[in-house]
Design brief:
The protein is an all-alpha fold. Helix 2 crosses helix 3, helix 2 runs parallel beside helix 5 and helix 2 crosses helix 8. It comes from Mesorhizobium alhagi CCNWXJ12-2.
Length: about 190
C-alpha cells in the first residue's frame, strides 16, 4: 500500500484530513462572522445612544436666539447629514480627505467663545450635539465605521474643534446645494 491509501482505523487518511480541514475552515469562518456581528451590534448600540444624545442636545440649541446664525445653519446641516445615508457617507469622505490642521475656525467661533462665559449651557449643548452627531454619523453606517478610529484620534488631538468641524459641514452643504436651500425642502430630498 502506498502512503496516500494508508488507512487510520479503517478509514483512508486522505478523507479524514479533508473532513478535518473543512470543519476547521467552517469554524474559522463562523468565528469571524460571529465576531463581526458582535462588533457591529456594539457599533449600532453606541450609534443609538449617540443619536439620542444628538437629537436631545440639538433640540435644546436650535431654537435658542443666542446661538449664532452660522452655528445654527451648521447644526441643521449636521442633523440632516446624520439622518441621510448618502449625505453622511459623502460628508465622511470629504471630512477624512480634508487636512484638519489647515482648517481655520469659523468666523462665528469667537461669538461661541464669548457665550462660554454667559451661556455655558448653550455652548455645552452645542458641543454635545456636534460630537454626538458626528459619532452617530460615523457608527451608524457600515461604510463610515472604518473611518471612526482615525476621526477619534484626530478629535482627541484638539478638543476645541467644534467650530472647525461645523465650518466643514457648512462648506460641504454649500458645495452640494449652493448658498441656501430656499425651497423649504430638506437637503435629503435632493439626493
Amino acid at each position: 500500500m502506498d502512503a496516500v491509501n494508508t488507512s487510520i482505523f479503517g478509514t483512508p487518511f486522505f478523507e479524514i484530513s479533508t473532513v478535518i480541514f473543512a470543519v476547521a475552515a467552517v469554524t474559522v469562518w463562523l468565528t469571524l462572522v460571529s465576531n463581526r456581528a458582535v462588533r457591529r451590534t456594539a457599533e449600532l448600540q453606541a450609534a443609538e445612544k449617540a443619536l439620542a444624545a444628538h437629537y436631545d442636545a440639538a433640540d435644546k440649541v436650535l431654537d435658542d436666539p443666542a446661538l449664532p446664525e452660522e452655528a445654527r445653519d451648521a447644526m441643521v446641516a449636521l442633523v440632516e447629514f446624520v439622518a441621510d445615508r448618502k449625505l453622511s457617507e459623502r460628508f465622511v469622505v470629504d471630512f477624512m480627505d480634508h487636512d484638519q490642521r489647515s482648517s481655520k475656525a469659523a468666523p462665528w467661533a469667537s461669538e461661541m467663545e464669548k457665550l462660554r462665559f454667559t451661556r455655558s449651557d448653550l455652548v455645552e449643548n452645542y458641543h454635545k450635539a456636534m460630537m454626538s452627531g458626528l459619532i452617530a454619523m460615523f457608527l451608524r453606517w457600515p461604510s463610515n465605521t472604518k473611518h471612526f478610529y482615525r476621526f477619534s484620534a484626530e478629535l482627541a488631538a484638539d478638543n476645541r474643534r467644534d467650530a472647525q468641524i461645523a465650518e466643514r459641514i457648512a462648506m460641504l452643504k454649500k458645495s452640494i446645494f449652493g448658498e441656501r436651500n430656499g425651497s423649504g425642502t430638506s437637503m435629503a430630498a435632493h439626493c
